Amino acid sequence: MIEIQNIHKSFGDNHVLNGIDATFEPGKVSLIIGGSGSGKSTLLKCIVGLHEPEEGHVFFDAQEFTVMNADERVSIRREIGMLFQNSALFDSMTVEQNIVFALDMFTDMSRKEKLERANFCLDRVNLKDTNKLYPSELSGGMKKRVGIARAISMSPKYLFCDEPNSGLDPATAILIDELIQELTEEYQCTTIVVTHDMNSVMGIGDYILFLYKGMKFWEGSNKDMLQSDVQELNDFVFASPLMKAARSTIK
Amino acid sequence: MIFHHFGKYVLLLRSVFRRPEKWKIYLKEIFHEMNEIGIGSLGLILIISTFIGAVMTLQIAFQLVSDLIPSTVIGQINRDSNILELGPTISALVLMGKVGSSISSQIGSMRVTEQIDALEIMGVNAPGYLILPKIVAGIIMMPVLVIIAIFCAICGGLIGGAMSGAVAPNDYIQGIQGGFNGFTIVVALVKAFIFGFIITSVPAYKGFYVRGGALEVGQAGTQAVVIGCIAILACDYIITALML
């Protein structure tokens, strides 16, 4: 479980996050949604420690992450898997080397065991026989899947995804969503996804945290969201004609 | 502003020299970087130092137009100039352009494409993994390259002098053998060691803290080369003043 309390973050005079509280349960996919510039990615980076919040606390299973020093954080970080918006695969390494990198660095597994693990992870994301390809030889969807394979290589307890569907066609986006949901159930990990893709929200949103101008404006499940009367949330979620039609059909 | 950057640079170096997660992986990276920095720059160093040696011989011969000065002095001046100044400093300035801009853009690209964030999320000490192998390779390979540069410059002087007729080969060889002080080689190697550190660490710092996109990565590369060249020249003066 991940718990955040009163997170504040600003860049100069720009206050990006203003006192965010939330609890993210294990075995569930939690989504952070909001318009551009609402502070979604900043909040995610504050949780994983890539940004330091000015105020507030982040707890990973009751261990306070915000007060830990760099060495203490390493033990938590080895249990984190993260999929970045642009995949962030290491350009100079093949797909296989990307996946075994963390295993090389932190485990004493034999070469055979590491290769088996890499093949298992690639198989899990439906990317067999891509071991020797470089990231530049992969499509956007394949890069995302390799990113997920790398994120799960160490069997993470916490999985973070920053806009996993950006730049993907709808069919591939649904595949990625399904994969995130399956892996969350399989590893019983605490999964936090930053997105503004409404298909993801309606498809995999067990818990949704809506940010508006750096503040927590609403939280609940995707089913609760359909009944919500919060104007800012409705303006964001039901902005497209398709979502408006879907809502009126359900109502 | 300068103190702010210097402080950040020192703090980055503190992270760089933290205990590696796994020595085996770092050693592999060090050998890879030694190949990139050392072998990859060998051709350039050979060509530049040979021509510098040849040109130096001609210019010394041009300026020493006197029956009272033996032509063996040309070889002697060329040798000492190359060992003490031209070999280490010109090689360092050239490598700052080649290796420095490459290191800055490589690390800068990794920063803007979130690859450094990915390393940190995994629990890897990103400054250590990315920068330490480059610094170690730089301070090992730079003295090797400087010794090669000095040898090529002296040989270049012989060839240039002989081809132009500025100095007879026998006089030149006699000159480079006379009055040799071994301490000059120590000074050259100390310079090479320090320059190797600057060539790798300054661009790594500029690349590591780059913000933005491709444009900023390019600007960081240019700044790294400019700052690195100034640092090399300043250190050149300080080492010379302290050791000679």
Automatic annotation (TrEMBL), chain A:
It comes from the Bacteria. Pfam families: ABC_tran (PF00005). One of its GO terms (molecular function) is ATP binding. The keyword Cell wall biogenesis/degradation does not apply. Keywords: ATP-binding, Nucleotide-binding, Transport. InterPro entries: AAA+_ATPase (IPR003593), ABC_transporter-like_ATP-bd (IPR003439), ABC_transporter-like_CS (IPR017871), P-loop_NTPase (IPR027417). PROSITE patterns: ABC_TRANSPORTER_1 (PS00211), ABC_TRANSPORTER_2 (PS50893). SUPFAM superfamilies: P-loop containing nucleoside triphosphate hydrolases (SSF52540). PANTHER family: INTERMEMBRANE PHOSPHOLIPID TRANSPORT SYSTEM ATP-BINDING PROTEIN MLAF, PROTEIN TRIGALACTOSYLDIACYLGLYCEROL 3, CHLOROPLASTIC. This is Phospholipid/cholesterol/gamma-HCH transport system ATP-binding protein. It comes from Sphingobacterium psychroaquaticum.
From TrEMBL, chain B:
PANTHER family: ABC TRANSPORTER PERMEASE PROTEIN-RELATED, PROTEIN TRIGALACTOSYLDIACYLGLYCEROL 1, CHLOROPLASTIC. InterPro entries: Permease_MalE. One of its GO terms (molecular function) is phospholipid transporter activity. Signal peptide: none annotated. It comes from Sphingobacterium psychroaquaticum. One of its GO terms (cellular component) is ATP-binding cassette (ABC) transporter complex. This is Phospholipid/cholesterol/gamma-HCH transport system permease protein.
